[in-house]
Amino acid sequence: MNQPENPFFHGGPVDNQKFVGRKEEVDLIFDQLRSHAVGSVAIIGERRIGKTSLLHYVSAPDVIRKWDLNQEKAIFLYQDCGVITPFTITRFWQVVLQKLHHQLIRKRPTDALAEKVATLLAKAEISTSEVEHLLDDVNDAGRLFVLMLDEFEWCVRTDVDAANITTELLAGLRALINHVPRVFSLIVATRRPLDEVCAEIRFMGSPFYNSFFFLHLRPFSPAEAEDLFEQMLADTSVQFSERDKEIIYGLAGTHPLLLQVAAALVFKLKISGAAQVQDFIHIRMQFHDHVRHQFEDFWKWSPRRSRQVLVYLASDRQAEAMELLERWGNERENLVKRGLIVQYRDTFRLFSPTFKEWLVTNFYRLGVSAWLAPQEYQTDRVEATATADPPTLFISYSHEDEAEKEALLVHLGVLQYGTGRIEVWCDDRIDAGGDWRREIAAAMEKATAAILLVSANFLSSPFIQNDEVPRLLQRREVEGLPVIPVIAKPCAWRQLDWLAGMQARPKNGDPVWRENGIYADAELAAIAEEVAEVIRGD
């Protein structure tokens, strides 16, 4: 007897026919599209939460018809921004307009609008203002152009070679959104809110992100999770018992990807002949192997305050965690939106026992063990009541070097032990929605020492070069502030006089991540030792 195919899929975006839930989000998107003002939408959500699946679903012909939009009139175009290389204004519009042209002539080979697009594509250079003129032709044809840009962060680049391109592109897209008559809608998908993604971009006039309706994509509701099981199992002979579902929810919470992974494992066991899922330990081990990269991702993109809450919840320090969540309202809201914590009666807990297990197992590697020492709690209370604050190390880095910064923080984490502890500050401690410029400026003023995590991204960041570096160098010259450049990756750092004249680390200015990073741990450990000596005056 042939076994039924496993219906649970977690290898990429789901097929439109298998799309489950998100009714409220779909309603909100089409409300914007059908408005007389034709609004634009920014979809924000974790990696693998379903952003790409949602974009493909809303552009499906049967969904468009359901919302009374004429498929011939409404042009939906999907583009993954990560594949647009090399990234220039012209290349961006060439990729988009080529897809538009193909879609138009596929439906109607003699389409007059397709001829207009072809004329624009024939130009060696394409500006956004020329695309704005094309919108008049879209209006004359009685059509609506919906451009869906996935992985939109790829379009927001702040390195010195791309900063002007980014500013020009965002200004142009803003003009298209506001073009009258309203025949253009932009739907972008990002991991972080647009205001954070565009934080280093200086706009003339209204910021680009002011034109969007923000839609946060959260984990499934319990009802949506139940719909997932029902729809996926409909064409099989398998049914999930309440115990089966209890095991799945215990592993995955209601995160769409994790639900699919856990349900696939349970389904596989049941079709092997098990009437009830008894081998929970085996399933949990398999689940962990499949999703640990996702847990790493949750941690990587969590700011310091979120991490501290997660650590306290994982170590069953419920009272301390609740006190922090009460005090840090923005952090609480952010963790709930991301689905990492869920409310249970009058308290909060981690969304999954398996995530809790992963955290506990990795406390030392993640550099958070110091938070668990009895005297180490009260981060804010200690600051308010202690006679002297601990020395503070300020980390200046580019967000493009997030992985390298995290590796550095792991090694610096040991400096936060004991009575001679050193506080490490970087901008992931800023609450969502906080005044990040003010908080960074305050942290630089408080710093006892600073590390510059130098790379090409660092050297070409306008904010770092115009705001952070000048103030740190001023304090170095006037107050003797120790400023330690750490060469993270190969870059032309010796071309900057102010940097070439400083004693960089590692020795001889060799990058930390050289030769595939085989020396990284040794170099970072040595840097942590040196930082401790410099700050403590050893």
Characterise this structure.
It is a single chain. This protein has 538 residues and is α/β, with parallel strands linked by helices. 49% of the residues lie in helices and 11% in strands. It is built from 24 helices and eleven strands. It has helices at residues 23-34, 51-58, 61-66, 89-107, 112-121, 128-140, 163-177, 194-197, 222-233, 242-252, 256-271, 280-300, 304-314, 318-327, 329-338, 353-361, 363-366, 379-385, 402-412, 436-446, 456-459, 462-479, 497-500, 520-536; strands spanning 40-44, 74-80, 144-150, 184-190, 212-216, 341-344, 347-350, 392-396, 423-425, 449-454, 483-487. Strands 2-3-4-1-5 form a five-stranded parallel β-sheet, with helices on both faces. α7 links the parallel β3 and β4. α10 crosses α11. It is globular and about 75 Å long. Mean pLDDT is 85; it is low at 375-387.
Strand content: 5-15%
What class do helices, strands and sheet pairing give?
A: alpha/beta
Largest sheet entry:
5 strands, parallel
Portion of residues within helices: 40-55%
User: What separation lies between the terminal Cα atoms?
Assistant: 74 Å
Identify the strand order in the major beta sheet.
Answer: 2-3-4-1-5
Provide a count of the helices: 24
Mean pLDDT across residues: 85
Principal-axis shape: globular
Radius of gyration: 26 Å
Low-confidence stretches: 375-387
Number of strands: 11
Short structural summary:
With 538 residues, the chain is α/β, with parallel strands linked by helices. The protein contains 24 helices and 11 strands.
